[in-house]
Amino acid sequence: MTDALTLAKAQEALQELGLNRCVDLLAPSAEWASENDATYIGFLVRLLESEIDERRTRRLQAKLRAAHFPYHKTLADFDFSFQPSIDERQIRELAHLSFVADGHNVVMLGPPGVGKTHLSVALGLEAIAQGLSVSFVTMQGLVSDLRRAHAENRLESRIKMYVKPKLLICDEVGYLPLDALDAANFFRLVSERYERGAMIITSNTGFANWGSVFGDPVLASALLDRILHHATTINIRGNSFRMKDKLRSGLAQSHVGVVAEQATE
Ligand code: ADP
Ligand code: MG
Fold first, then answer.
1. What are the sequence ranges of the domains in the chain?
2. Architecture of domain 68-249 in CATH?
3. Domain AAA+ ATPase spans what residues (predicted)?
4. Over the stretch 37-56, which tens digit does the pLDDT of each residue have?
5. Which atom of ligand 1 is nearest to the CA of 242?
């Protein structure tokens, strides 16, 4: 049995080395070692692994906080049978994240509620689980942040901050049209990340409308040129998951139904 003075000395040394988890687990690990006839090395491995585990968890939690996801939903939470226009195999392939390693992009297009944000978050969570840095922004949040930085003469450093994460998720492109400054700032960011860092972009608006979203067809085409050079585009056509229960009870018509009806009017 280790005497109290020796234990305290060892704890102090571990503390000085910054091995806080080892401090907490030293006594129980020593007890475990004597109860299980563990070797000295076996004891040391157990102690150090607990420190490594704790640090890994803390790093992941810090990455999760820094990502600013609107919610935490995974691929396991996604009901692929509800959205047959999505190729499940393609999404599972994307979840291997070679597009992030290659600095390529994913563009998700589709009407509201079909799972664009959910799938983006799910891929972002996979990236974080692999130890990659991720940042989630909405287009509105991004352009208003860059606009503020521009006004305060610190656009350069702000753009650098958005270039840093291995994966930048930019949600809801096209929900609101942009003015010239916002469009130019977004273009700068995309140009800086081009072939350097992966992006996931979601939009409810087809590429043909991006000219009016960005208020400038030339800029929109240069932007799309960069975004789509190395990109996987996922076109989701289907009903809003938010309407699922209403659809089931017959309270709402499906998008498909509504569009079909309008077309015959
Ligand atoms: P949008 O395409 O507008 O970004 P979201 O991804 O935010 O839509 O989806 C709206 C809500 O419905 C979210 O709570 C999301 O988790 C849920 N959802 C959407 N599609 C599915 C699905 N196929 N399976 C499970 N949940 C889904
Ligand atoms: Mg969304």
1. 3-62, 68-249
2. 3-Layer(aba) Sandwich (3.40)
3. 102-235
4. 999 999 999 999 999 999 99
5. 12
